[in-house]
Design brief:
This protein is an alpha/beta fold and about 120 residues long. It has 3 helices and 7 strands. The longest helix is centred in the middle third of the chain and has 22 residues.
């Protein structure tokens, strides 16, 4: 877990992963922050609402304190295929300019980086 602290704002946030290596090695030495979402509740729409809120807050704060870092929302491949492929969800993701990292949790493989 990566802590992002804004002392002059009195705010502490925690992203799931901040990496330069080894994940960034696949991204041409780009610095990234990854927020991992499990979508484990019965309502994926509610989970998406929460994810969008967190993503928006993290992106805004990262732009101020660490603009070289790119933010990704990590989601499991089955959630991506079952939920994120819906046209309305794709429109929402595009409107919020969300970057996705799709992974296969059992094999712990990254399937796709979607910007």
């Amino acid at each position: 877990m990566t802590r992002v602290f804004f002392p002059n704002k009195g705010l502490r946030l925690y992203a799931d992963l901040g990496a330069e290596k080894p994940i960034a090695a696949e991204k041409s030495d780009r610095k990234i922050v990854v927020e991992i979402k499990g979508f484990g509740t019965p309502s994926p729409v509610t989970e998406l609402e929460r994810a969008i809120g967190q993503y928006s807050i993290y992106r805004m704060l990262l732009a101020r304190i660490s603009p070289e870092r790119e933010l990704f929302l990590a989601i499991a491949q089955d959630i991506y295929e079952d939920f994120f492929h819906q046209p309305a969800i794709q429109d929402i993701v595009a409107a919020h300019q969300m970057r996705l990292l799709v992974f296969e949790p059992t094999r712990e493989d990254i399937i796709a980086w979607i910007s």
